[in-house]
Structure to design on (460 residues):
């Protein structure tokens, strides 16, 4: 005989097996209770008691049936809401005004910020690719803006929500300066050798040091040996850039040419050979490492305006970012934007000389307006700002208020005096230290790996 067996509860979508199990257990307990009352049973059997207790479920029960404790926990403290942080890079065409107003500041507030930025930051100097960071509170109110100006410089703008005032400040990280060396034999040319080791700024320094002794295009060839002792600047474990050359030796055709950096008791720094004779001319041989002279001094047809006019400098073609050096000791008397000249620096030297450096992409953070510079200091970087057809340095020399042909001025400058007799003993002692360091293998830095960090020697 066939019986139609049906489940106690019909299956419905969303009705789980656990729920069915619960109802079965509940029905069973109720039935047992009724039976117990009807037949005078004074207690439930252990099996029934176990089944009865199983209907009390925990907090995760699907039906939400919970057993609460009589003891109530009182929570204390605060769980703060998180601020939102957005990190991005400057896009072409973006300005500080666009960035700040897009992040909640009013035009009036941006104007107030601009007033505080004077002397710390030029609004026009934003460059595509620079990193910035914006922080807002949980109510989407502006809190702060940070702009990475360079490897070591970050501009910070903070807003006090209670007073509505702004605070602008600049964070400058300090380099860890280490002493390192490069030694080797040239396979093709010196520039390629140094580029392989990513020590680009050493190329221009060497050419300036030995300008009166070595013609680098003619004399340097495969087989030439070199030793360079120089400063390296690091930020933590990241290589930043190369600093000053401290000592250098270049040997070819049986001759060795040397240069040693020395600072005397009066604080004057120069480069000298092993006998203390000065290698410094009044001017460096060139203000940057360039590939060619794209425009000479004198009358020419302007590449943009199309008309003939007098060109007061020489245009030195070089990639954007190429270091630009002060050609002589002096003081920066102008540093900023100058119309068609773009970013420009003017340095006042002795003997009635001034030099100008035009179309810079950016300035060195080490040498602000009014600071003193030494020959060979990096003051900026080649660019194409202002009225320009491409990256180059427009370099100008003024003597007693009149423009001079820079090529003539650079070649005709006389050498400065050598080490004095009173300083000679100290100079020779320093020279001995440099020579020993040039020959130490433990200061050799041949690449940018962590191994190079370990073999660098920290300066005292």
């Amino acid at each position: 005989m066939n019986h139609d067996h049906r489940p106690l509860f019909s299956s419905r979508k969303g009705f789980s097996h656990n729920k069915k199990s619960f109802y079965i257990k509940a029905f069973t307990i109720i039935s047992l209770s009724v039976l117990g009352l009807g037949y005078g049973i004074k207690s439930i059997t252990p099996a029934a008691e176990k089944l009865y207790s199983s209907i009390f479920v925990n907090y995760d029960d699907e039906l939400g049936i919970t057993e609460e404790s009589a003891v109530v926990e009182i929570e204390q403290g605060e769980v703060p809401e998180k601020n939102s942080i957005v990190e991005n890079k400057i896009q072409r065409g973006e300005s500080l005004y666009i960035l700040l107003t897009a992040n909640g500041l009013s035009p009036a507030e941006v104007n107030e910020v601009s007033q505080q930025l004077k002397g710390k930051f030029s609004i026009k100097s934003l460059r595509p690719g620079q990193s910035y960071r914006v922080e807002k509170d949980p109510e989407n109110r502006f809190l702060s803006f940070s702009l990475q100006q360079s490897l070591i410089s970050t501009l910070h703008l903070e807003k006090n929500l209670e007073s509505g005032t702004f605070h602008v400040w600049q964070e400058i990280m300090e380099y860890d300066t280490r002493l390192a060396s490069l030694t080797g034999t040239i396979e093709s040319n010196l520039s390629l050798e140094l580029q392989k080791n990513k020590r680009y700024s050493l190329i221009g320094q060497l050419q300036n040091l030995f300008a009166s002794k070595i013609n680098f295009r003619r004399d340097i060839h495969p087989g030439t040996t070199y030793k360079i002792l120089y400063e390296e600047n690091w930020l933590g474990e990241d290589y930043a850039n190369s600093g000053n050359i401290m000592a250098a030796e270049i040997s070819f055709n049986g001759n060795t040419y040397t240069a040693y950096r020395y600072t005397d008791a009066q604080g004057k720094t120069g480069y000298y050979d092993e006998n203390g004779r000065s290698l410094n001319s009044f001017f460096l041989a060139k203000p940057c490492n360039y590939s060619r002279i794209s425009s000479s001094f004198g009358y020419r047809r302007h590449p943009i305006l199309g008309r003939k006019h007098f060109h007061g400098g020489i245009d030195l073609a070089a990639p954007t970012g190429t270091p630009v050096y002060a050609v002589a000791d002096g003081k920066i008397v102008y540093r900023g934007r100058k119309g068609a000249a773009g970013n420009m620096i003017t340095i006042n030297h002795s003997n009635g000389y001034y030099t100008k450096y035009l179309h810079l992409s950016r300035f060195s953070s080490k040498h602000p307006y009014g600071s003193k510079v030494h020959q060979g200091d990096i003051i900026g970087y080649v660019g194409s700002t202002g009225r320009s057809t491409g990256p180059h340095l427009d370099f100008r020399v003024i003597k007693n208020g009149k423009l001079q042909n820079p090529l003539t001025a650079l070649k005709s400058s006389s050498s400065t005096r050598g080490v004095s007799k009173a300083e000679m003993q100290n100079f020779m002692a320093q020279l001995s230290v440099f020579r020993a360091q040039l020959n130490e293998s433990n200061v050799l830095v041949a690449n940018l790996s962590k191994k190079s960090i370990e073999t660098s020697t920290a300066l005292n």
Summary: The chain has four domains: 17-53, 84-172, 176-280+429-458, 292-412. The chain has a mean pLDDT of 80.
